[in-house]
Amino acid sequence: GPIAPQGTYSVRLRVGGGAPQSQTFRLLNDPRSKATATDQLAQFNFLIKLRDRITEANEAVISMRFVKGEIDDRLKRAPAAASQELSAAGAPIKTNLSGVEAEVYQVKNQSSQDPLNFPIKLNNKLASLNGVVSSAPGAPTAQAVQVFNELSTKLGVQTGKMRTLYDRDLAKFNELLKKYGLPLIDTTPKPKVAM
After folding, report:
1. Which among 7, 128, 140, 163 could disulfide-bond with 144, CB atoms 3.0 to 4.6 Å apart, if both were Cys?
2. For residues 178-187, b (16+ Cβ closer than 10 Å) or e, as one string?
3. Mean pLDDT across the stretch 143-161?
4. Could you tell me if 99 and 107 are in contact, meaning their C-beta atoms sit under 8 angstroms apart?
């Protein structure tokens, strides 16, 4: 995450059932830096917004992959009488989600050389911007803000398409699943429990 700006902070620690202990400390600016406290705070706030958009991009990819896997699961579990109808409804959802995913994440990357062969996508562009802005203390440049706004808008278009697919097409698919007594598909991946 982003480096905290200079200022006064406090930390609180509780060990076992004991009473919490608190300590206040002051985080100082790197003496070699010319960045003001205001510049550092502007950088920190910008990097938090950027982090949140990167997280949104990555969570969208995880969700789309999960939903496509769930569709495959329901098609495998479908009774023979439902197979054709569910396949016809599920295939376009998977295709359209794959199209959205390919705009958010470079799906062709298989090795460390592949980013040289295939263009980077939104999540990688946002992550690269993060590296540029966090490379030195100081307020983000006007160009960095402009790039962020452009990438953020493009990401919003893609996540909007994903939500539309979920709200419209996946909702209809869930109605078919209900009709055939199959579990409905939720768009939120379930955490894997380690045994």
Report:
1. 140
2. eeeebeebeb
3. 98
4. no
Cα gap 5→53, rounded to integer Å: 21
Phi-psi region of 19 (alpha: psi -120 to 50; beta: other; left: phi over 0): beta
71 vs 84, 102, 152, 177, CA distance in Å? 13, 18, 29, 10
Looking at residue 73, its amino acid is D
Give the alpha-carbon dihedral of 154, 160, 162, 165, to 10 degrees: -140
Q: What is the pLDDT of residues 39-56, one digit of tens each?
A: 999 999 999 999 999 999
3-state secondary structure the chain: CCCCCCEEEEEEECCCCCCCEEEEEEECCCCCCCCCHHHHHHHHHHHHHHHHHHHHHHHHHHHHHHHHHHHHHHHHHCCHHHHHHHHHHHHHHHHHHHHHHHHHCCCCCCCCCHHHHCCCCHHHHHHHHHHHHCCCCCCCCHHHHHHHHHHHHHHHHHHHHHHHHHHHHHHHHHHHHHHCCCCCCCCCCCCCCCC
Tell me what pLDDT residue 63 has.
96
pLDDT digit string, tens, across residues 56-71? 999 999 999 999 999 9
β-partners of residue 8 are: 26
Q: Assess whether pLDDT exceeds 70 at residue 195.
A: no
